[in-house]
Design goal:
The structure is a single chain. The chain is of the alpha+beta class and 460 residues long. The chain starts with a helix and ends with a strand. The longest helix has 45 residues. The strands form four sheets. Strands 2-1-5-4-3 form a five-stranded antiparallel β-sheet, with helices on both faces. Strands 7-6-10-9-8 form a five-stranded antiparallel β-sheet, with helices on both faces. Strands 12-14-15-17-16 form a five-stranded mixed β-sheet, covered by helices on one side. Helix 10 packs parallel to helix 11. The structure holds adenosine-5'-diphosphate and magnesium ion (MG). The site of adenosine-5'-diphosphate (ADP) has 21 residues, from helix 11 and helix 13.
Length: 460
């Protein structure tokens, strides 16, 4: 029995120190001897003599208390080298149940501890992150929301956890359906954009959102992560700028339209006079109704633009949006002898868009092209389906062009080279195209011309 015990003590990896009832060392295992430099000569010495080997000085009290209460205790301590141990203090009973003293066991938990510290650090970072953070399982069930989420939405973790990540967003009228984001995530890819979200008070607010898969070291997705920023304020400002730019564009167009409408009005007046004088001719009437229809079309298009409208994304034909814009802009182009050349493929696959916002972009770009050619010329508007499934829309003018060092400034708010310019057109356009998950690229050469290319995803 004694021999077995000796063998066990020599071979165990658990550091153990035996104390007698007077808190003197009786024996110890080789593991702990090595770690805190115990020598055979230390046997018989009081425990207090070796306690300097640890960054802890409550040993003797702990041991005395356990001896008194016979209740084992456990605590985490560090040796002078910085290693962490889980130390247990137990009463030491002989086989006939006599308490002979105390056993201290030491289990090295350094690795566990540093992993825990690392974990704590990361979890504090997420807990205190200024971004809304949501973690969901592979089926989309919400497993975690951070305090920022609660602060912005008003939903407590208990309200959100267990629900589906899809339900956090307001998908009606969204630029993309949830299924599209979900299939990207399932393929291990990310999605970034702006979405509307619910808050507890029944209101919605805008978020700049990123959905991404969390992968383990083997690249396997283990969770999904949503990081978002409340951007209601920014969105509000953008909306104001967008509206003011739209009103300014409409105002400028109105001047061109007034000019354009005057000729047919004069013609109409002449025909009315002829009719009143008794001259009857069916062709008068058909000319008159064609002129009236055109005036009506132009004016109603202008009114639609000036009126505030819902920002719902709906499936629309990009060809007809472009044609509406060209009809409107033709009135201005004619004044400066610009010919808008229509190279729009029709039909094209539908795109998911806010129609009025896209019109605003196209008006900006066409107007810029017309304004770049004060002495007239051709402005080509081209739209076709590209091999990658996107619609490519090009606006090519042969106007003044943009000097290379100024190209970088395009899209900066209030950057304009025109006396009546707002300098908001391109800024607003970039933003709208981005919200539509598209891209807009401008290339230009001074005194040669400018090409604006807009790519928009189609509904697949
Ligand atoms: P605005 O038209 O009110 O000046 P924009 O944001 O639409 O504001 O355009 C900013 C500036 O970019 C214009 O003032 C002009 O200098 C330049 N620009 C934009 N489009 C063209 C173009 N097609 N040709 C030449 N310059 C352009
Ligand atoms: Mg402009």
């Amino acid at each position: 029995m004694n021999n077995d015990m000796d063998n066990f003590l020599v071979s165990t990896r658990i550091g153990t120190i035996f104390l007698d009832r007077n808190m003197c060392i009786r024996r110890f295992t080789p593991v702990i001897a090595q770690e805190i430099n115990l020598l055979d000569a230390d046997c018989g010495r009081p425990l207090a003599h070796i306690s300097h080997n640890f960054r802890y000085n409550g040993f003797v009290e702990d041991a005395k208390r356990v001896l008194r209460t016979l209740v084992p205790e456990e605590r985490e301590i560090q040796n002078q080298g910085g290693k962490w141990y889980s130390m247990r203090v137990l009463p030491y009973r002989t086989s006939d149940n006599v308490i002979k003293g105390i056993v201290l066991t030491f289990v090295d938990i350094t690795e566990l501890k540093s992993a825990n510290i690392e974990m704590l650090k990361l979890s504090y970072a997420i807990e205190q992150s200024p971004s809304i953070t949501v973690i969901a399982g592979l089926d989309g069930t919400i497993e975690y929301v951070n305090p920022k989420f609660t602060e912005v939405t008003g939903f407590e973790p208990a309200d959100a956890i267990g629900g589906h990540i899809r339900e956090l967003q307001h998908w009606e009228g969204s630029s993309v359906p949830f299924t599209e984001i979900w299939s990207l995530l399932s393929e291990g890819q990310e999605w970034k954009g702006e979405l509307e979200s619910h808050s507890r008070n029944g209101l919605t607010y805008w978020e700049s959102v990123k959905f991404l898969p969390i992968k383990d070291s083997e690249g396997q997705t283990i969770h999904y992560l949503k990081i978002a920023e409340d951007m209601s304020e920014r969105r509000h400002t953008e909306e104001l700028l967008r509206k003011s730019e739209m009103l300014s564009a409409v105002g400028q167009l109105a001047a061109g339209i007034a000019h354009e409408i005057r000729n047919p009005l004069t013609a109409l007046k002449g025909f009315t006079k002829l009719l009143r004088s008794g001259a009857h001719n069916d062709s008068y009437l058909s000319i008159m109704s064609a002129e009236l229809e055109r005036i009506e079309q132009i004016v109603s298009e202008l009114l639609v633009l000036a009126k505030p409208q819902a920002v719902d994304y709906l499936p629309k034909s990009v060809s007809s949006i472009l044609n509406d814009v060209i009809m409107l802009l033709d009135t201005q182009a004619i004044i400066t002898n610009v010919e808008i050349v229509n190279e729009i493929d029709d039909p094209l696959p539908l795109i998911s868009c806010v129609e009025n916002q896209l019109k605003q972009v196209f008006i900006n770009v066409v107007k810029n092209g017309v304004e770049a050619m004060p002495d007239g010329g051709q402005l080509i508007v081209r739209a076709r389906l590209a091999a990658d499934g996107m619609v490519n829309i090009g606006f090519i003018d042969h106007g003044c062009g943009i000097p290379e060092k100024k190209l970088a400034r395009l899209g900066e708010p209030f950057y304009t080279t025109k006396s009546n310019g707002t300098g908001l057109g391109l800024m607003v356009s970039y933003k709208i195209i981005e919200n539509h998950q598209g891209v807009m690229v401008i290339t230009s050469k001074e005194n040669v011309g400018t090409a604006v290319v807009i790519q928009l995803p189609t509904i697949s």
